Sequence to fold (199 residues):
Amino acid sequence: MPGMKKKAPSRQTAVKAAKPRKTAAKSSARKPTAKKETARSAKLARKASVRIVVVKPVPGVAYAVQRGRSELLVPARVTETALVFEFFLTVADVTSHPPRLTGQYAHGPPAARFVYVNSGTMAGQDGSCWERRAKVPLDAIPPALLAKAADRSDVFVEASIRGDSKDGGPACATVPLLSGWTLVEDKAGRCEAGQAPVA
Fold:
């Protein structure tokens, strides 16, 4: 009738009308975007095979890569002019700068990881006159190489260092790479073949 006011909708009616909107909002919030999925998979921890070649080691001096606090990794291969160490590093986050590497062979702070190459008594050689430890920096490994080597035992991220120093003894302190990090495919590689401690 004219002059009569329309009744306001009841609280129950208003709530029922609002429910579909809330459900739709929840449904859309649960769907991860493609960008988030890519970032999430990039952060999943994966193992990468790493190879360090020690060129021109000092004759008669033992070398080993330090594993954890005291264990030692002996060379996977030995030639007249080089020692080859093969092991795994865990790529915890390939999207960080530099990529975050972990594992028992990775030492130092997250932004400046390195690998220890021990020599003389520090490599388990009793009676040696040498007691040295060299640092091989890992922060320059390109993320693309780590991604390609991840979860593959036949593909290595490889670098070479000199095994001797200017004073004629084994390398020590932070050592420069003879060349940059490269990707090497080697189906005969025996990653962590020398994992058993020698001391």
Remarks:
- The chain has three helices and eleven strands.
- The radius of gyration is 28 Å.
- The first helix runs from residue 11 to 30.
- Residues 13-18, 193-199 have pLDDT under 50 and may be disordered.
